[in-house]
Amino acid sequence: MAKSIMIQGTMSNVGKSALAAGLCRVLKQDGYKVAPFKSQNMALNSFITKEGLEMGRAQVMQAEAAGIEPEAIMNPILLKPTNDTGSQVIINGKPIGVMAAREYYRHKKEYIPAIMDAYHELEKRYDIIVIEGAGSPAEINLKKDDIVNMGMAKLADAPVLLVGDIDRGGVFAQIAGTVMLLEEDEKARIKGTIINKFRGDVSILEPGLRMLEEKTDIPVTGVVPYFYLDLDEEDSLTERFQKKEKPGLIDLAVIRFPRISNFTDLAPLEALEEVSVRYVSSPAEFGNPDAVILPGTKNTISDLLWMRQNGLEARVLKHSAQNKPVFGICGGYQMLGMEISDPTGEEYGGTVQGMGLLDTKTLFRPEKHRTRVHGTFGEMKGILKEMKGLPFEGYEIHMGETILDEHASGLITLENDSDTLQQGHPDGSQKGNVYGCYVHGIFDSPEMSGGFLSALLKEKGYDPETVQAVDWKSYKEEQYDKLADIVRASLDMKEIYRIIGL
């Protein structure tokens, strides 16, 4: 059976996901078959596996770092918030409904068999499982029925590394306070602590590290520097939303919805120095972009009404009236149509008028559409007309069905056979310089992202070859190798191997 090691944190966004991915890469490089695992994840950035199952994006990133195909059993419970008090609950890749927080906590223990079935399946097939916790193990109001931090560590009999974030300050109090609030058997599981996101001279930290070891009776197993790598993120606390981009040759405004999902769709464009990708949440931030992108959202109607109330919808409509491109993905695509109806209250309920930029209507249904897709762009119009025939691949994950009226034009052709899609199935819609489709990951291929940027450059009078798109898969492999180098240099890997039991 597989060995295990668990990464827990003193709070959210301390870097657990990235460090778990780094360990996965190091262990892979050292010849081990390694898999990631997170029993319960709360995130709006998700992914569809080859089997058509849904899982959190962090475990996808970690699986890629481990060099393996992502599987839903690596994230058996995924919670996707639909509002401030409720979430869609997904068990082993399949949605079972929307629950209020109190209802979910009443049923949480019932999901332990599903969690352990998933974990045991990975145990059979891998040498090491790198488990990620969530938030903090010292949330004393949640500890009773915990299934993701120390509760999971006990179920898997896993040793724990506790990570603190020094960049936000108070890291010694974070770690010492967390340890103090744990039960004795839980403290015994923590075999090492890690200081993450450090800037400066490590020697200055040394006295504090020794005192921390004395107070907690737990060794410090590493100090990780603050680093800048392009790794997929799923947390709304991501720093990319706060980045102040310098003006590039191409300026893209991405609407930052309150329930924004799958913002990793824009990562291949963000990786290019000549392209500024700005996440905007108010008219004052909108500026004069070359194109506007409306990304995915977990609550299409609510976020459309938010845009309508704060004035961003008016800015997008004015941008479109100036014959500039607007591109909608998934929920953003739904907003661009004439009408959105949610008769059974799958997300918001009721019927609202859309932005009226595409000749489509969307009807929400209880069934969730989940599939991997690939295909080509069809007969394109407007500024993006030269993208005709370009290939793409990605995945669709949505509750609504979008219907084109008789005058509407499709955008893409899906070429894969599946239970729900036939060969040559048209998808998406376009009208003038407004484009939309359901495909997440559509910018991942260099052909697609390169064609999109070339069209925008040409429209501005630049040489369309000025910006060269990256091969996103190869680029990510380089990032994982750089991450592994940082982990090796920063952590006491000999001690970590001893903790794992190797």
From TrEMBL:
SUPFAM superfamilies: Class I glutamine amidotransferase-like, P-loop containing nucleoside triphosphate hydrolases
Pathway: Cofactor biosynthesis; adenosylcobalamin biosynthesis
Any coiled-coil regions, as ranges: none
All residue ranges annotated as the CobQ/CobB/MinD/ParA nucleotide binding domain in the record: 5-226
Positions annotated as active site in the UniProt record: C330, H440
Keywords (A to Z) from UniProt: Cobalamin biosynthesis, Glutamine amidotransferase
Protein purpose: Catalyzes amidations at positions B, D, E, and G on adenosylcobyrinic A,C-diamide. NH(2) groups are provided by glutamine, and one molecule of ATP is hydrogenolyzed for each amidation.
Family according to the record: Belongs to the CobB/CobQ family. CobQ subfamily.
Name by which UniProt lists this protein: Cobyric acid synthase
